[in-house]
Amino acid sequence: MLRFTKMHGAGNDYIYVDCFAQPVPENLAELARAVSDRHFGIGADGLILICPSEVADAEMRMYNSDGSASEMCGNGIRCVAKYVFDHRIKQSETLQIASAGKVYELQLALVDQIVEQIVEQIVDQVRVDMGEPILLAEAIPTTFVGEPVANVSLALPSRDLTVTCVSMGNPHCVAFVEQATDELVLGLGPLVEHDSHFPNRVNVEFVEILSRSEVRQRTWERGSGETLACGTGASAVCVAGVLTGRTNRQVTVHLLGGDLQLEWNEQDNHVYMTGPAREVFSGEWPDQA
Q1: Same domain, residue pair 261 and 280
Q2: Helices of type H across the chain
Q3: Which one of 23, 102, 224, 231 has the fewest beta carbons within 10 angstroms of its own beta carbon?
């Protein structure tokens, strides 16, 4: 039996496997598809392994719900930090988590919880140093030209979109729109994900500007479809808003699953994201046949 914990950050939910306590499962792509299925599995946007690391307090390895591997997830890494602290793998208010060869620093905000009349601290909010945005076209990657790739026209069968491309460890295509409708997100999202301008596919953000410090975002996530939140996507939106002159460097991003606070710091060029991390339940998944 495989022990697992379901967690979410602003509704972006994953199945987490503690590989400090048990071996790394086999057939990870197949496992990710099975556990993520919302009708026949546990139900999630994907699978995340929490593994020992030689360079950090833990390593995050993640798979989308279609079984494809992914490099980074801002909501997922906050939940990894919560798991590491709450399950006493390491109890420090600053943690280092590795993902896809890069180490991220996370600051934990704690709250008191009473369990059997004993007060213990658990993680409530996490601030993640998401690092510097990648703006060079070939590094995102995209076949669009530029550094940055900002306000370029993407031709689609039904309409053209004006987009800005940013990588936050994984590729994002941000479209500022008057209204993020189902027609755009569900209709155009998969077309943009698989567009030939993006050799590794791409995550797609449809964003409404509410003010210079507030936006509303819906995300079509590469390999998972629409998700309730996307942390790297919110980070990319913060950067794209500044690059195109639409927003300030500090913004509140409203997502279907909740709010994230973003800052693109002018001094160190890093993007900082703050948001919640929640544990839902734990259980056992039967051995695969």
Answers
A1: no
A2: 28-36, 74-86, 182, 189-193, 231-243
A3: 23
53 with 149, same domain: the answer is no
pLDDT the model gives residue 289: 46
Alpha-carbon distance 284 to 15, whole Å? Answer: 11
Q: Is 16 helix (H, G, I), strand (E, B) or coil?
A: strand
The active-site residue, picked from 73, 165, 173, 238, is 73
Q: What's this model's pTM, rounded to 2 decimal places? A: 0.92
Mean pLDDT of 63-77: 94
Whole domain around residue 258: which residue ranges? 137-269
The DSSP line for 112-180 is: EEEETTEEEEEEEEEEEEEEPPB--GGGTT-SS--SSEEEEEEE-SS-EEEEEEEESSSEEEEEE-S--
Looking at residue 288, its pLDDT comes to 61
| Structure confidence at residue 287 (pLDDT) | 77
**Distances in whole angstroms, Cα of residue 201 to Cα of each of 49, 94, 129, 173, 240:** 23, 33, 25, 10, 19
Catalytic residue status for 238: no
Q: Which of 165, 173, 230, 238 is catalytic?
A: 230
